[in-house]
Amino acid sequence: MSGIHETEVPNPDARRGKTVGESRIVMARSMQPPDANVWGNVHGGAILRLVDEAGGAVAIRHSRCRCVTVAMDKMTFKEPVYIGDLLTITACLTSVGRSSMEVEARIEAEDMRTGVKRHAGTSYLVYVAIDDLGHPTPVPTLLITNEEERERAHAAEERRARRQRR
Questions:
Q1: Residue 96's domain spans which residues?
Q2: 68 lies in some domain
Q3: What is the pTM assigned to this prediction?
Q4: Phi, then psi, of 46 in degrees rounded to 5
Q5: What's the rounded Cα separation, in Å, for the pair 99 and 130?
Q6: What value does the CA radius of gyration of the chain take, rounded to a whole number of Å?
Q7: Residue 7: pLDDT over 50
Q8: N or C: which end of the chain has fewer CB within 10 A?
Q9: Within a domain: 35
């Protein structure tokens, strides 16, 4: 006996929609020597790990479930990140499916001595909410509250269609 009746929703939080703002996060971390190569450039993999952690936090906040990373779209590093820079990742949902969620992560590097900020890149990640048995589980719908969010949701649908064609 599973303990779940057919009329019960496995994730009760999935019944109500949530706004983008309810799960948006900002993570910041000072880049240290172990994050970089001998020339002081932060490894792309160190940045990607932080991006995945930020994206995962957004997905978990939205779904209130365990989440796994399913995909990360192309990542282009637009500006270098150096030891001593403050790396800030701003992450938010762009779209939600039945159990999947796309998160946009914007990466910014700041030279804390000068205050100069550089847009280091943007990435889109897809997560799936899973139950305690590892099966996909429904997530709350995404409530779009303004035109910017509507545009992001439309662009997310285009990315989803491209992913499905691959």
A1: 12-165
A2: yes
A3: 0.88
A4: -65, -40
A5: 8
A6: 18
A7: no
A8: N
A9: yes
